[in-house]
Amino acid sequence: MKVHRHAAPPEDTGIDLTPMLDVIFIMLIFFIVTTTFVRESGIKINRPAAKTAVKQEQTNILVAISPQGEIWIDKRRVDIRELRGLIQKLKSENPEAAVIIQADRDARAGLLVQAMDQARLAGVRDVAVAAQQP
């Protein structure tokens, strides 16, 4: 009596990539959600140099003053009378933020002082003037 052995059909030995793709997708979502975005003032400023300049690491409210006396905040040109309200709004979104005024070296000092005054009237304790290290 002859016994016939039938070969079993070959099994699919491929690697299932679905769990790995799920992990990568979850990591991507995590990095997108936890990323902090830097707000720009809206114009390029030629900052004055200072040997005592210190880099600020936290998220800040940036106000730029151009040599022509234009004030920019959050990529929008504003009037000095609007500055206080905008700073209050941005401060309510990020209570720990400081105000950094990026005044061009050729900007009027009086406008810089007015901008600092508006920031303090908006309730911000930490107001700084941006400078670059020489």
From TrEMBL:
Keywords attached to this entry: Cell membrane, Membrane, Protein transport, Transmembrane, Transmembrane helix, Transport
Which InterPro entries does the entry link to? Answer: ExbD (IPR003400)
Keyword ATP-binding among UniProt keywords: no
Q: Record's superkingdom?
A: Bacteria
| The keyword Ligase is assigned to this record | no
Q: How does it sit in the membrane?
A: Single-pass membrane protein; Single-pass type II membrane protein
Return one GO MF term: transmembrane transporter activity
Q: Which organism is it from?
A: Fontimonas thermophila
Note the Pfam families from the entry: ExbD
- Put simply, this protein is called Outer membrane transport energization protein ExbD
Gene Ontology terms: biological process:
protein transport
Q: Which protein family is named in the record?
A: Belongs to the ExbD/TolR family.
Name the residues that span the membrane.
20-38
GO CC annotations on file:
plasma membrane
Subcellular location(s): the record lists:
Cell membrane
